[in-house]
Amino acid sequence: MTEGRFPEGFLWGVATAAYQIEGAVAEDGRGESIWDRFSHTPGKVYQGHTGDVACDHYHRYRADVEEMARLGVGAYRFSVAWPRIFPQGRGQANPKGLDFYRRLIDALRERGIVPVVTLYHWDLPQALQERGGWAHRDTAYRFADYAAYLFDRLDEAVPYWITQNEPFVVAILGHVTGEHAPGLQDPMAGFRAAHHLLLSHALALQAYREGGRRHGRIGITLNLSPVEPAGDDPEDEAAARRLDGLLNRWFLDPLFRGAYPSDMVAHFAGLGLPLPEPPQEEMRAIAAPIDFLGVNYYSRQLVRHEPGEPLMAMRQVEGPLPKTAMGWEVYPEGLRRLLERLRHEYTGELPILITENGAAFDDAVSPDGAVHDPARVAYLRDHLLAVSRAIDDGVPVRGYFLWSLMDNFEWAHGYSKRFGVLYVDFDTQARIWKDSAHWYRRVIEANAVVD
Ligand code: GBH
Which Enzyme Commission number(s) are on file for it (predicted)? Predict the structure, then answer.
């Protein structure tokens, strides 16, 4: 294929997540989530920002779907807020919560936009956290019940289901570093959470396969990054291998090989961490075939050996490449390498969706009323070229979802980091097309990377 051209039928999309955009946190019977609790806890989120209003998408979803139609996207990846569907996480369902997603899906269908639904993008019902959250095995079973409830009601309208978004981030940032909800700093809770997140995927997958006639496809989304040593010291190389073992292989190996990576199990055992040994039937269920793998890619990780560091004996270092407003290096080549590695080591011919890729920059509305974001256009262009090269080399990438449709609640950074191609004025809720939105519209139209 010509450089920068995409195969016919390539799925062009944008992505969001419920807590980051919806607002309306107390409306129509929605229950509390761990992110409501966390963001309302002083000191946890930048300047005390919360998702109470966010982009007010709950009320403005029709206009937002119109924006997507104008962009020309073929697909929209969003997440369902579990506490809208089951306010207590289990037990009594809340039909008004389901109605919102039905209305959203109807609006998308009217515009010919395919819904890609993530079942969990970090907003666990607080009631389940109080029963132990993801560190507790029962949460995986409650997730499967919630998933089955949605499969039975929405499957005909949903061609792609994603069980979990970034279990690494949920387990490690939520339970080990404490940067995310529920804000724990307990490595053992992190490992239990990681396993129960994978188990919840497996149980939902089972419910999907066994629950009668289904129309869609189902997969999981991982955040994956190439991990590279900062120097050529063999100790740094071993440190890079360790972070790769936690960030990438800790999730890929169970899903595609049915076992946690043995070098990492040995590493943690050497630290005296009594990792739970999951039952074989759980490991088998986690490795059950999926229909696609979702990949979120932002950057690489550069690491150095650091003997004093607990758990991983390494530290991340700042790389030399230009950075986004998040401080993440712009490294498009990493995406191509990651995709090649996935195909050779894990996924083979399994279709891949890039379920997130994008960048935050310090955007501002200029006097002419436009938002000029050339750095984002360059980021997107170079990453799309990397994807198109990987496709030309035979990696079956079937779609690309730009993170994000619009500026939104960037977790612990609140509204201070803007990832959207639509600029959001959080005082007026106006959506303003950044230059990158105009550019992305032309890419979609051409089915090719354009200038
Ligand atoms: C995604 O997370 C989220 O799915 C999305 O909700 C969010 O808005 C978006 O990206 C932008 O942040 O330094 O060891 O933690 C991406 C989170 C951040 C996870 C970088 C991996 C690097 C590994 N990623 N992180 S580490």
Answer: 3.2.1.21
**Residue 2 in domain:** no
Q: Check pocket membership of 339 for ligand 1, CB cut-off 6 A.
A: no
Does 35 contact ligand 1 (Cβ within 6 A)? no
Contact call for residues 434 and 373 (beta carbons, < 8 A) = yes
Range of the domain at 261: 11-446
- Of 22, 403, 410, the residue with max ligand 1 atoms within 8 A of its CB, to mutate for a pocket test, comes to 403
451 in a structural domain: no
Rounded to the nearest angstrom, the gap between the alpha carbon of residue 107 and the centroid of all alpha carbons in its chain is 23
Running along the chain, 451 residues long, what does each successive block of 10 average in pLDDT? 89 99 98 99 98 99 99 99 99 98 98 98 99 98 98 97 99 98 98 98 98 94 98 97 98 98 96 90 98 99 96 97 98 98 98 99 98 98 98 98 99 99 98 98 98 91
Q: What gap in Å lies between CA 383 and CA 442, rounded to an integer? A: 16
pLDDT for 1 equals 57
Ligand 1 lined by 165 (C-beta under 6 Å): yes
Question: Cα separation of 211 and 150, whole Å?
Answer: 11
* Number of domains into which the chain is organized: 1
Residue-wise pLDDT tens digits, 302-332: 999 999 999 999 999 999 999 999 999 999 9
CA–centroid distance, residue 183 to ligand 1 (Å): 16
CATH number for the domain harbouring residue 89? 3.20.20.80
Which residue among 22, 169, 244 is best mutated to probe the pocket of ligand 1, counting the most ligand atoms within 8 A of its Cβ? 169
CA 146 to chain centre: 19
4 domain residue, yes or no: no
Any atom of ligand 1 within 6 Å of the Cβ of 329: no
Distance from residue 169's CA to the centre of ligand 1 (Å)? 7
Locate the ligand 1 atom nearest the alpha carbon of residue 17 and give its number.
Answer: 6
Residue pair 169/110 in contact by the 8 Å Cβ criterion: no
Residues annotated as catalytic are 356
Q: Is 250 in the pocket of ligand 1 (CB under 6 A)?
A: no
Residue 1 lies inside a defined structural domain of this protein: no
Q: Whose CA is nearest to atom 11 of ligand 1?
A: 410
Q: What is the ipTM of this complex?
A: 0.92
